[in-house]
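Q: Predict the assembly, please.
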Amino acid sequence: MAEAAIELIGINKSFGAVQANRDINLAIPAGTIHGIVGENGAGKSTLMSILYGFYQADSGEIRIGGKPAAIKTPSDAIAAGIGMVHQHFMLVQNFTVIENVILGAEGQPLLKTSIAKARSELERLERDYGLEVNPDAVVEELPVGLQQRVEILKALFRGADILILDEPTGVLTPAEADHLFRILRQLKEEGKTIVLITHKLREIMAVTDNVSVMRQGALVATRKTSETTVEELAELMVGRRVLLRVEKGTAAPGEVLLSVRNLTVKDSRGVTMVDNVSFDVRAGEIVGIAGVAGNGQSELLETISGIRVAVSGTVTLAGQPIDLTSEADPGELRERGLAHVPEDRHHMGLVLAFEENENAILGYHDQSHYLRGPFLDIEAIRDDAREKIGKYDIRPSDCRLKTANFSGGNQQKIVLSREMERDPKVLIVGQPTRGVDVGAIEFIHRRLIDMRDQGKAVLLVSVELDEIRSLADRILVMFAGRIVGERGPDATERECGLLMAGIDNREAAE
Amino acid sequence: MDFFNTLVLLLDSMVRLSVPLLFAALAGLYSERSGIFDIGLEGKMLAGAFASGAAAAVSGSAWLGLCAAVAISVFLSLVHGFASITHRGNQIVSGVAINFIAAGSTIILGQAWFSQGGRTPLLGADSRFGAVRLPFAEAVRDVPILGPIYSELLSGHSILVYIAFLMVPFTWWVLFRTRFGLRLRAVGENPAAVDTAGISVEWLRYRAVICTGILTGLAGTYLALAQNAGFVKDMSAGRGFIALAALIFAKWKPVPVMFACLLFGFLDATSIRFQGTPLPLIGPVPVQFMQALPYILTVILLAGFIGKAIPPRAGGQPYVKER
Amino acid sequence: MSTPYAKLPAWADYGLIPLVNLLVAFIVAGLVVLLVGENPFRAAAILVEGAFGGGQAIAYTLYYATSFIFTGLAVAVAFHCGLFNIGGEGQAYVGGLGVALICLSFDGTFPWWINFPLATLGAAAAGALWALIPAYLQAKRGSHIVITTIMFNFIAASLMVYLLVDVLKPAGSMAPQTRTFLEGGQLPKLNWVIEAFGLPIRSAPFNLSFLLALIAAFLVWVLIWRTRLGYEIRTRGHSPRAARYAGIGETRIIIVTMLISGALAGMMALNPVMGDQGRLQLDFVTGAGFVGIAVALMGRSHPAGIVPAAILFGMLYQGGAELAFEMPAISRDMIVIIQGLVILFAGALENMFRPYIQTIFASLKPRSAGLAAEKGG
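A: Predicted assembly structure:
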């Protein structure tokens, strides 16, 4: 084995009662691409934040290039030759590329000379690595892929020998991701060490030399990528063999309950987010919308549920048209049988500061059985909450506990119980298992199938292709705001992946 | 010629009245550009005025007065920083608190130390910032047009007036041509970007509020040692809030800040000069309307009817590391 | 990042921490007293004696507290909706106009018990109106309500000076104030309640609006925690996105909340204008709108906290007057300092001592701390 670029020895880190990292030991050889996989919440990002000096470990040692390194702040990490590309870009949106690149590495007090120097250095990096980007472009006007490139340039500009990338492909199309991987391989050729954090096994297999698996804060295994399989990694990640397919009967679709025609939505800047989208969802089927995050799925969900205003198009709910082109009332849609499990549980689906029972009526707080005139019927609300807690096995079973004190899975169950127990006609669900523990995922998937079997029309949006493929009876793929293709439940991953990149090659696949 | 002389006098008074606004608005600019909202400009200016009045009265030196003003005003800025940077408290609440602490303690301490009903003793010319005569001001006085402009409008102000106007290009230069300025603007837009670039968000913001303290100290000194001859209670009289309005009006940019302050100074000057005089076409305008005009204009601006004032993106929010 | 601090028992959260913060504010205030060469303990004794020593003192304390209950409630209601209404001062000032217009119109026609509800409506309507424009601009145009309400305080001051000097002042009078209201425009005093406890009162402005303030406090509690509207207000206050999701119209909830807030602030005017002075004067609000901020922060926006906090400030105002009499070096402006310190320590620095208190709790009872739920990615 080559000399270790990074050694982590006995790293521990707790946030309150949650132990995010426990006794991590890891050595990463220089000049390799090392993958770290794990589910959401497995502690990957925390570990890398410790390496980058964003947090300090409670105990343990970090060695860089064989020497003990005291990394207390990001500037220590930068000095030690570590660069990091964060999941959420650390860019100043209204600065130019070059301003972002020099920020913190200006060299001297006056900008003029620093910018001149940076310009020639950027030209060199562009030549060496094919990292082309206009240095005078304002960052907020660049597409996401280029913004990420600016992040990589920032790290290289600071002379990083070790580059950490945290979930770099979450916002990229497969094609952009492949381009990124080419860049990473080239950086490896130049002798850089790369740490790639992801929960996508495909990427690990495609680009890494070695891979470490994290589960519940612990590092459970390290393998040579060439000597492992997706199945083995998946098993290591969740701790037991997973059923890739949820068991379910065949769908028996009935009448059309949700019909969307020519829907177009723009964001506040006037950029088209949903572009002339049409589809139907029938009673007794789950329609899954797949796609890379940021291709209009969120806007689509929010528009159908009345939170966003559409520019044009019609939506028909159980045979009755609803007007979404002017300020719609989500409350009225609920009354007409639309239930919505939003993507953003923390800021939209729940009020974390509320007691559990208060969240159990969110959106339904104007229904007569919770009210006595203008007053809330506190007893009715709490009784109702207790009943749902029992039925959905929400823990702890205390309806007066603050919602923030429930785990992610139990919070999601609070939302699901609220939306599903209302006996809706149409259920639209966004990212139902994001940040949810494995046990709850199974429960949630089961409940969604049950809803289907009860004859509800279910529209499911998820960035997890596996989730879509195992639950949906029909798969629609969104790309750049449009629905670029429809597939059956037996579509291959490769086929869907190409569609998600905007490439329709049904012919090629056949 | 009469009209011209009136105009020169009016503009001269505009310049004098806009100086405290200019200092305070530029002060606010440093803080708010770094993401720390500051509605405590008023209090810091008042405390500065008191400190300069008191120190000048005791020591007989205007410059010592100035130092005292800057010291106390920086101290209050650090209190604001301690609450809103270190302890991530609500910046509005902290600013309100500082306004009260300054309003109360200037009177209490003034009464305790000087026993003149909250005033500081009247200062002689030596312990104030007197007028600076520019060269040849007397000689060219009688030259038509340019003479009065030079000798009345440009000459004869205290040194602080010249400093205030020099602070405008200086602030612009700091903000857009120096490393400190780049980082200051960055931390007000995206503190996480600054943090991950290896720069301490806290220290950067502390430096920004120290700049604010220095400039509000100058604003207070101007009130007590240049515009007046000593401290009078509540002498800032809402100027800190007009400065805040000017800052918003200027969309947090240094040169427009100067014009906004001149505009508000001009409104003030006209309302003093034409008190009760009917305006042509409009008739008599209540003086109260003129006094309220800066506030009304700012509300109209905030409503987005004249452009849109977009504050620094991270303004008002304490920086907490995400995990 | 849902819960930055571990959980404390409710009594520590709502009782102990505010108490510690308050204590620190008073210690610092004591240092100021020391600085001007007086004995802080003697000052405190005079202050308490001045506020509660005898019927006269108590009546004055409650008179001041009445105003602060109204303004504290006004700030608190807005807080619950995530809005910082810093304009209580201006809303109360304009509220006085509502009171005066009713009293000037009907004081010779109706008895006080008809004019009182009318004037209450007038005060509430005027205060609400003054909050309406900032509310509308926040809801519709996104103008920062803190700045607009500050601006509206100044605009209100100019407006009222203009009205009192140029419009409402009786002909031939020099003082910028309305004529004195007739008996139908003056509220009955409540001094007899205190006298019933055997505490004599010479004359004090403690009046019926105190009861109205207590009723308002109760109604605000009902509104916030027991009505559908209150649920909507709190939802929007905690999470505007969740409110949108729940079908709570943002424009409507902001405007309704600010109307309620402005109305409460406006009703403060009843106390001095109709209950004490019997006429509309310049600057009758004397900072009560701002005291409301301190009161709401100290009372944690809960009526059960606001009423005692208002009485505490009433005590400071009344006791402070006595203190100024006994110790000439300490004028009533001492109260302004204390107010500022309370806002600083109970508001901006409210979490300064929390980690220490949590450590103490954790060491006493290891299981009470903890429970951060969300695991990071």
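Chain C touches chain A through 33 residues (CB under 8 Å). Residues 116 and 187 of chain C are 7 Å apart (CA to CA).
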